[in-house]
């Protein structure tokens, strides 16, 4: 599939087919297909954004089209495309296996609502490499039933960071495992490396490795939030939660906009376990930084700034045995 020039979506929402209001360019049930070219996919999203309830609370909350969707497919490569100004999400990979995305650029204004860059759901064996993403929502979002995802050489900003989740909404099951981010630069994003889950969910996030990441002026560089609540009304306290374990952060450095450069806000009944920090150096231009912990177990070794002493640890025997950590996390290498 060779894409050259610019493909432009209709810019008037009322001209959209109401029976197919969530999709624009949708490819499904493909095997061994290459999408390539220097072309641009332009969603003309301005009027959709203006009608969003996130822009104006008096507007009704409803979905808008995704610019490009690859669904129920396998052995797909996407190379060199630019996707911009999507009505809602830019590029969704859904229910697919063995997907390779290289040299893709995603671009939308910082204030465009719900415009995730690359969204991965119910997919496995996905590689994202050399991608530059700046949007009004998550640069990359990975949600339920996704595993074996490797992201390498990723530029993110503006946006809401590189996120796992949200998971567990409406008491649902969320399962994400074997995720690697290696070599990334995040600039002026509202979050850096984020895992977000709703109270009341179940399932797990495990075997995640973030390494070689530079942050510049990022509000929440490292954050696990098991109390995520993207709702106009307060979310009800619930005891069940998506379990989070085996999360490694290695060689993470840069500047934080907020005082809490690392935040591990975990469930009292389903604590986060085996969080490992190695060679962390996060600073703040005009003040000190700190780590916040609630029901989070793990430890740091090597240089860790700010200190993560607030992490409780059931793994103290391993603190001086980083080689055991290598063995423990080896299966996250893809």
Give a quick summary of the entry.
This is endo-polygalacturonase. By secondary structure, the protein is mainly beta.
Task: Reconstruct the topology from this structure.
Elements: E1 6-8, E2 23-28, E3 31-35, E4 40-42, H1 46-50, E5 66-71, E6 74-79, E7 82-84, E8 91-94, E9 97-102, E10 105-107, E11 118-121, E12 124-134, E13 140-142, E14 146-156, E15 162-167, E16 173-187, E17 193-197, E18 202-218, E19 222-225, E20 243-256, E21 260-265, E22 272-283, E23 290-294, E24 296-305, H2 322-329
Parallel strand pairs: 1-4, 2-5, 3-6, 4-7, 5-8, 6-9, 7-10, 8-11, 9-12, 10-12, 11-13, 12-14, 13-15, 14-16, 15-17, 16-18, 17-19, 18-20, 19-21, 20-22, 21-23, 22-24
Notable traits:
Pectate Lyase C-like; 24 strands; 2 domains; 334 residues; mainly beta
Would you kindly provide a written description of the structure presented here, covering whatever features stand out?
The protein folds into two domains: 1-86 and 106-120, no CATH class; 138-332, Pectate Lyase C-like (3 Solenoid). The protein has two helices and 24 strands. It has helices at 46-50, 322-329; strands at residues 6-8, 23-28, 31-35, 40-42, 66-71, 74-79, 82-84, 91-94, 97-102, 105-107, 118-121, 124-134, 140-142, 146-156, 162-167, 173-187, 193-197, 202-218, 222-225, 243-256, 260-265, 272-283, 290-294, 296-305. The strands form two sheets. Strands 1, 3, 4, 6, 7, 9, 10, 12, 14, 16, 18, 20, 22 and 24 form a 14-stranded parallel sheet that branches.
């Amino acid at each position: 599939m060779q894409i050259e020039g610019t493909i432009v979506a209709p810019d008037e929402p009322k001209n959209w087919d109401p029976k197919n209001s969530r999709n624009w360019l949708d490819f499904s049930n493909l095997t061994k297909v290459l999408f390539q070219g220097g072309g641009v996919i332009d969603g003309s999203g301005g009027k959709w954004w203006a009608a969003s309830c996130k822009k104006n609370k008096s507007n009704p909350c409803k979905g808008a089209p995704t610019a490009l969707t690859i669904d129920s497919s396998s052995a797909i490569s996407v190379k060199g495309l630019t996707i911009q100004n999507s009505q809602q999400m830019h590029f969704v990979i859904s229910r697919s296996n063995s997907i390779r995305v290289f040299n893709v650029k995603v671009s939308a204004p910082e204030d465009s609502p719900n415009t995730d860059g690359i969204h991965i759901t119910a997919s496995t064996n996905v590689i994202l490499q050399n991608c530059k993403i700046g949007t009004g929502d998550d640069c990359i979002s990975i949600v339920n039933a996704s595993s074996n995802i490797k992201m390498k050489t990723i530029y993110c900003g503006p946006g809401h960071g590189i996120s796992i989740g949200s998971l567990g909404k409406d008491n649902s099951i969320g399962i994400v495992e074997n995720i690697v981010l290696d070599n990334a630069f995040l600039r002026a994003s509202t979050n850096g490396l984020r895992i977000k889950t709703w109270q009341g969910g179940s399932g797990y996030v495990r075997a995640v490795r973030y390494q070689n990441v530079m942050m510049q002026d990022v509000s929440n560089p490292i954050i696990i939030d098991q109390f995520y609540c993207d709702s106009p009304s307060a979310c009800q306290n619930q005891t069940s939660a998506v379990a989070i374990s085996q999360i490694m952060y290695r060689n993470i450095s840069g500047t934080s906009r907020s005082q809490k450069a690392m935040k591990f806000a975990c469930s009292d009944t389903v604590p986060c376990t085996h969080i490992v920090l190695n060679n962390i150096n996060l600073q703040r231009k005009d003040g000190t930084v700190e780590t916040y912990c609630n029901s989070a177990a793990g430890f740091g070794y090597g240089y860790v700034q700010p200190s993560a002493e607030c992490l409780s640890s059931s793994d103290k025997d391993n603190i001086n045995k980083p080689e055991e950590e290598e063995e423990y996390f080896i299966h996250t290498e893809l």
